[in-house]
Amino acid sequence: MQWETVIGLEVHVQLATRSKIFSGSSTAFGAEPNTQASIVDLGMPGSLPVLNEEAVAMAVRFGLAIGADISKRAVFERKNYFYPDLPKGYQTTQMEEPTVGAGVIEITLEDGSRKGIRVHHAHLEEDAGKSLHEDFTGMTGIDLNRAGTPLLEIVSEPDMRSAKEASAYLHAIHTLVTYLGISDGNMAEGSMRCDVNVSVRPVGQPEFGTRAEIKNVNSFRFVERAIAHEVERQIDLIEDGGKVVQETRLYDPDADETRSMRTKEEANDYRYFPCPDLLPVILDDDYIERQRATLPELPEAKRNRFTSELGLSEYDAGILASSRIMADYFEQVMNICGDAKLAANWVQGDLSAQLNRNNLDIASSPVSAEQLGGLLVRVKDETINGKAAKQVFQSLWNGEGATADELIEKHGLKQVTDTGALAAMIDDVLAANPTQVEQYCAAEPDKRGKMIGFFVGKAMQASRGTANPQQVNKLLREKLDEKANG
């Protein structure tokens, strides 16, 4: 039997507010445990929450970016459940009337085609604390610093049909929220994580199969692996005569497997009811339009501009627009050197390779956009050749100089373009290699092209890499052909 996979994601995005959603406690990452939890975060008797307006603004901006309906009236509910890292005994969230309604997120598939993934809604809520198991033998520690941190939970429709599509959707959300500046998207720090709903059904069957929810998957790679394992588990179970039960599962990346946590609860098991401490959130058209006015150029628009206005390929534009920081870096370099393709080649090539080798992101690059742009100006005006440019780039990376011009002067890397000087140097090279000259002259004309590389190498070596390779090649051909025909 042929099976079809059906996937929906619930993506939790930690919003980049300085304080929590209902209190003034800091949201800074890395503080000592339990030093950033106030009486409001803990739900102490008599404490009252006050909604952080910036969290609402960020949710609205996200909704506008995906073409979603923005609710003029949103309501907070209490989702009641007991867990040690939720000391209040309930989570304040939105259910019946969320801030962001239905929208669409576009993803790029492996074959380059585009697909729209429907977003059912996105709602605001507070995060819970964190249970710590590693440092306590036979016990669990609780860190409540994260309790009350604002989250935007983005709930998709079950529109994805493969692990690759799910990963592409997660990447698209990561790109979008970082473009908007509403989250740093740092999955290692928990700023973005997701619950994955997976089911399988026979190809052609209209009804969905029974789904399992895999909780708190925190990397793109783990999302793909968790889905692959869960799909295989469900198919094997059904084909062996069993039934998939609706449940919550946990993905263990070390064992590369999912394990059952608990039978899936229905929404009414949580006993949702309106939060008596928070009034409905009422938004008017002016407020929504003010948020719209703050939106930056979004990834798809930037990608289209890079191809239509700058002449970049779809591939180059997609890579460069995949991160707002990378796109901004590229545009700074391009504006300085005046050549989009040259800037794209260096940002995606030498710079990205060096960043990967050192496990750095572009925001941490030791070579600034101004420095790289200055280097490419000297490549473009032929002050230096490609080999020297790589040497200067490495020196800039190592902090050996502030500018390309400084390093070019310091290491004597200016390209020799004077025809007279090059001709004299080439005469010396030919005089020093008479046997190879004779072999060239004796060869058939169609074989001489491969032989000239020897002389080019010798000439570049004699100039310590500063000769203009094109001029060297041209002069060598002229002189050698003159000898062969003379």
Automatic annotation (TrEMBL):
InterPro entries: Asn/Gln-tRNA_amidoTrfase_suB/E, Asn/Gln-tRNA_Trfase_suB/E_cat, Asn/Gln_amidotransferase, Asn/Gln_tRNA_amidoTrase-B-like, GatB, GatB_C_1, GatB_Yqey_C_2, Gln-tRNA_amidoTrfase_suB_CS. Its EC number is 6.3.5.-. Pfam families: GatB_N (PF02934), GatB_Yqey (PF02637). It catalyses: L-aspartyl-tRNA(Asn) + L-glutamine + ATP + H2O = L-asparaginyl-tRNA(Asn) + L-glutamate + ADP + phosphate + 2 H(+); L-glutamyl-tRNA(Gln) + L-glutamine + ATP + H2O = L-glutaminyl-tRNA(Gln) + L-glutamate + ADP + phosphate + H(+). Residues 328-480 form the Asn/Gln amidotransferase domain. Allows the formation of correctly charged Asn-tRNA(Asn) or Gln-tRNA(Gln) through the transamidation of misacylated Asp-tRNA(Asn) or Glu-tRNA(Gln) in organisms which lack either or both of asparaginyl-tRNA or glutaminyl-tRNA synthetases. The reaction takes place in the presence of glutamine and ATP through an activated phospho-Asp-tRNA(Asn) or phospho-Glu-tRNA(Gln). Heterotrimer of A, B and C subunits. Belongs to the GatB/GatE family. GatB subfamily. NCBIfam families: gatB, PRK05477.1-2, PRK05477.1-4, PRK05477.1-5. This is Aspartyl/glutamyl-tRNA(Asn/Gln) amidotransferase subunit B.
